[in-house]
């Protein structure tokens, strides 16, 4: 076969089968009982790269291994680094899955499995795109590198350490980093995401009495840590979602009229957006639209609270301990280190003296923003997208975080190009995660066309 587009067409089933192989591996990075699945999954990728004739290796980190691969270097030509993650979020609650999370199942043109969109399916589009070119043309006149990590869902510390090492900097050196771990603005609407939020994730643990107490004997005479916790958490945010921590907004850049107009001009079905998640209305800072709130404003969210009695019936106690996991989404120019400092000072100031507290910073990362005017990779990608989806791409920012991208941009001094094939209803991090197979195949084609476009 001489044409990469024919190759892609003929191999649709093969690509799907190989995606399903990857989806069967429960590579849950947060869960220590899946350590061996993490190495199994990393090896699956190393084998795939080797079979394609790339030089590939498994790089150990303190936690989950990295997978690195490269085609032959072509001096004087640009280098494209393609990034993805093979780790997935825990699948709980299991009882809500229609088919088991690690048995990929097709329904209505979608594959259902944990990691289908986030990020095995999305990442593999680029792998199959390169395969289609190498197995037809034989080679590319420039170098392509891959880095696939296993800690994206838990903060990317291993990759960050590698990125800052001498060997890491050399291996990852490139002109453009291509990432598919974001979404499309609407079904069938090709999308380039030029900004992401950062994150700062915490766990706060409060301790009151040295054991759970009878709430009749002691109630009213000692501070209840569960009440202390809810008061502290409630004081972080006001009724409009405005964060009350001093200096929190110091580095937030104002939204320009230009960007505001551009967001407002997007064909956003706001009623449908809320309807799909069973809500009638949104929530958030006054004077900001839903998309502004989601994409360019920092936020506070409680991710989980643990305290007291959770079993059947009632139990009249004052719990000894209360804890919460919470996150702030940050916008570009906010510095995670200052946020951590300010949060710590705030907790110290508002926690009652009778309660002992420990604040653990779980991970943090800065937000990123690509200068669309300056990047020379936006045009070839736009051409490839328009040809594939018969529509010009829209340019959006998104609210999720890919912790490593801001540091890629800073350390490698290269543009990060985020082009996703996901959809809002793909249920990332939720039960019944899915990936549209049409998007999977279109993604492969668009990626291959982009790689071809770069030859010019
Ligand atoms: N694919 C997502 C990031 C994403 C989600 C981008 C939605 C744009 C829209 C990624 O895998 C993810 O979930 N990241 C985590 C990172 C965190 C755990 C450090 C996130 O955003 O919560
Ligand atoms: Zn994710």
Can you tell me about this structure?
It is built from 14 helices and 18 strands. With 456 residues, the protein is of the alpha+beta class. The strands form four sheets. Strands 1, 2, 3, 6, 7, 8, 15, 16 and 17 form a nine-stranded mixed sheet that branches. Helix 4 crosses helix 14 (437-455) and helix 5 (157-164) packs across helix 6 (166-172). It is globular, with a radius of gyration of 23 Å. The model has no long low-confidence stretch (mean pLDDT 97). Bound molecules: ligand BES and zinc ion.
What general outline do the C-alpha atoms trace? globular
CATH superfamily of the largest domain: Zn peptidases
Helical run tally: 14
**What structural category do the secondary elements indicate?**
alpha+beta
- Alpha-carbon distance between the termini? 22 Å
Low-confidence stretches: none
CATH topology of the largest domain: Aminopeptidase
**Oligomeric status:** single chain
**CATH classification, class level of the largest domain:** Alpha Beta
- List of distinct ligands in this structure: ligand BES, zinc ion
Q: Cα-atom Rg, whole angstroms?
A: 23 Å
Number of strands: 18
Return the CATH architecture of the largest domain: 3-Layer(aba) Sandwich
**How helical, in percent, are the residues?**
25-40%
Largest sheet: 9 strands, mixed
- Strand coverage percent: 15-25%
In total, the number of domains comes to: 2
What is the arithmetic mean of pLDDT? 97
């Amino acid at each position: 076969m001489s044409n990469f587009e024919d190759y892609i067409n003929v191999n649709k089933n093969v690509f799907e089968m190989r995606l399903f192989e990857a989806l069967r591996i429960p590579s849950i990075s947060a869960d220590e009982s899946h350590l061996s699945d993490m190495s199994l999954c990393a090896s699956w990728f190393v084998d795939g790269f080797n079979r394609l004739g790339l030089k590939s290796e498994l790089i150990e980190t303190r936690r989950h291994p990295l997978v690195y691969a490269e085609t032959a270097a072509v001096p004087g030509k640009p280098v494209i680094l393609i990034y993805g993650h093979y780790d997935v979020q825990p699948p709980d609650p299991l009882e809500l899955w229609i088919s088991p999370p690690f048995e990929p199942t097709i329904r209505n043109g979608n594959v259902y499995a944990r990691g289908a969109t986030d990020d095995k399916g999305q990442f593999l589009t680029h792998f199959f795109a390169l395969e289609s070119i190498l197995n037809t043309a034989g080679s590319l006149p420039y170098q392509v590198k891959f880095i696939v990590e296993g800690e994206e869902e838990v903060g990317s510390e291993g990759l960050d350490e590698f990125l800052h090492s001498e060997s890491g900097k050399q291996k990852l050196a490139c002109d453009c980093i291509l990432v598919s771990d974001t979404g499309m603005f609407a079904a069938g609407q090709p999308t380039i995401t030029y900004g992401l939020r950062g994150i700062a994730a915490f766990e706060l643990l409060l301790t009151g009495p040295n054991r759970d107490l009878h709430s009749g004997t002691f109630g009213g005479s000692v501070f209840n840590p569960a009440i202390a916790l809810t008061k502290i958490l409630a004081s972080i945010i006001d009724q409009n979602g405005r964060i009350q921590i001093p200096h929190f907004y110091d580095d937030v850049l104002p939204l320009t009229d230009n960007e505001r107009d551009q967001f407002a001009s997007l064909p956003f079905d706001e009623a449908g957006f809320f309807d799909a998640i069973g809500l009638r209305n949104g929530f958030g800072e006054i004077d900001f639209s839903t998309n502004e709130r989601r994409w360019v404003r920092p936020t506070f969210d409680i991710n989980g609270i643990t305290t007291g009695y959770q079993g059947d019936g009632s139990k009249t106690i004052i719990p000894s301990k209360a804890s919460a996991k919470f996150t702030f989404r940050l916008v570009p120019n906010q510095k995670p280190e200052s946020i951590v400092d300010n949060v710590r000072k705030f907790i110290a100031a508002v926690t009652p003296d009778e309660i002992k507290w420990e604040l653990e910073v779980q991970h943090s990362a800065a937000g990123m923003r690509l200068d669309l005017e300056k990047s020379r990779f936006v045009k070839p990608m736009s051409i490839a997208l328009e040809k594939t989806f018969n529509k010009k791409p829209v340019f959006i920012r998104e609210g999720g975080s890919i912790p490593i991208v801001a540091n890629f941009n800073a350390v490698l001094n290269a543009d990060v190009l985020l082009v996703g094939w996901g959809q809002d209803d793909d249920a990332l991090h939720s039960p019944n995660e899915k990936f549209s197979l049409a998007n999977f195949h279109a993604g492969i084609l668009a990626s291959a066309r982009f790689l071809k476009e770069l030859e010019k």
